[in-house]
Design a protein that fits this description.
Bound molecules: NADP nicotinamide-adenine-dinucleotide phosphate
Largest sheet: 6 strands, parallel
Radius of gyration: 19 Å
Helix content: 25-40%
Order of helices and strands: EHEHEHHEEHEEHEEEHEEHEEH
Number of strands: 14
Shape: globular
CATH class: Alpha Beta
Structural class: alpha/beta
Number of domains: 1
Length: about 325
């Protein structure tokens, strides 16, 4: 039996990781959340991981208050601790017991500008939008940029910087790693005390009580269904894929507006959806205008509308 350690097991993603592993007899699963361990106490973390001697560690813990840490220095310090320092220490602990570390990151490491490959890795695309451009699509009509796993990350926000630093610390400290970037996570609300509802749950409530809702027609990216992400994470580990960065998100690039329209269509909600620019809801942290994650290392996931239907059935 393989020993699996899931950190952040009551979060939106963590609870789904627990679900996909705990019913599989091949695995002996240990799940920790805030009440089981304070992961910012690195000595204790190191000791507990060594005692448990896991084969694979999944880190679903993160600081996700994107706007709070942009303006508040104390919050920014918490974000740096949880998103940058802790993953680096966890990677050290994983290396010490020769475990694989699966760590999660975000599309907010990108800036929404023309993607660029690191030097020496350019596959021949200048990024100027020519007919053969791999980013804008063969007919040059796609009104957004999409990013490969290897494209240069340039975050716009403090949150994005902390997550990028976390990626770098993991890569530096343990070779056996998978860094999985996702975007716009949705699924069952997290069990944890501070657990947030996802965008679709909020929009459902508004759709059932209002005649009209406004939705931002911008920040083009992909939705990620937490159970699909958990299942894919398990497959990546089980298939022993090469270590590195993976993009995992459901198919179908969409703005928030596109997402609500699709959602209400599935639900049969007749509420009018008004498209508004991002400036209608000013927020302290800058978001990339487009940050579509290209999924190039694994097979494409199903379209997010299929995932939404399953979410509603459940
Ligand atoms: N949500 C999104 O839209 C989104 C988008 C892109 C990337 N991601 C990434 O996806 C991953 C999973 O995110 P998520 O939305 O599932 O997160 P989440 O629901 O906020 O879950 C995080 C879990 O970690 C726990 N935790 C926080 N601080 C801890 C500490 N010091 N010690 C122990 N446990 C602690 C939380 O407990 P409490 O609730 O009690 O704090 C919670 O159960 C993260 O890496 C995130 O950055 C998320």
């Amino acid at each position: 039996m393989k020993r699996i350690l899931i950190l952040g097991s009551k979060g939106m993603l963590g609870q789904e990781l627990l679900r996909v592993f705990q019913h599989d007899k091949k695995y002996d699963v240990t799940a920790w959340d805030r009440e089981d361990i304070d992961v910012t106490q690195f000595d204790a973390l190191y000791r507990r991981v060594s005692d448990m001697w896991p084969d694979v560690i999944f880190n679903a813990i993160a600081y996700n208050a994107v706007d709070a840490c942009e303006t508040d220095d104390d919050e920014y310090a918490k974000a740096r601790m949880l998103n940058s320092d802790f993953p680096g220490e966890l990677a050290r602990a994983a290396k010490a017991v020769d475990a694989v570390l699966v760590h999660y990151s975000t599309d907010y490491v990108f800036d929404g500008e023309r993607p660029q490959y690191p030097e020496g890795k350019n596959p021949g695309c200048c990024g100027s939008g020519c007919a053969g451009c791999m980013y804008k699509g063969p007919d040059e009509t796609l009104p957004y940029y999409s990013y490969h796993e290897d494209d240069i990350a340039r975050p716009l926000s403090r949150y994005g910087h902390t997550k990028l630093k976390g990626e770098q610390n993991v890569m530096k400290n343990v070779n056996r790693h998978y860094i999985i970037r996702l975007s716009k996570l949705f699924g069952k609300p997290a069990e944890s005390v501070l657990g947030k509802r996802s965008f679709f749950d909020v929009m459902r409530e508004l759709g059932e009580t209002k005649k009209e809702v406004q939705a931002v027609d911008g920040e083009m990216s992909k939705f990620t269904y937490a159970p699909d992400l958990a299942k894919t994470s398990k497959e990546i580990v089980e298939n022993n894929l090469a270590p590195g960065i993976y993009h995992v998100a459901n198919d179908g690039a969409a703005t928030w507006y596109d997402g609500v329209k699709e959602f209400y269509k599935i639900l049969g909600i007749k509420t009018k959806v008004v498209s508004v620019p991002p400036e209608t809801f000013p927020r302290p942290a800058k978001r990339p205008s487009s940050s579509v994650l290209k999924v190039t290392k694994i097979k494409n996931l199903r379209h997010y509308s299929e995932a939404l239907k399953e979410y509603l059935e459940k």
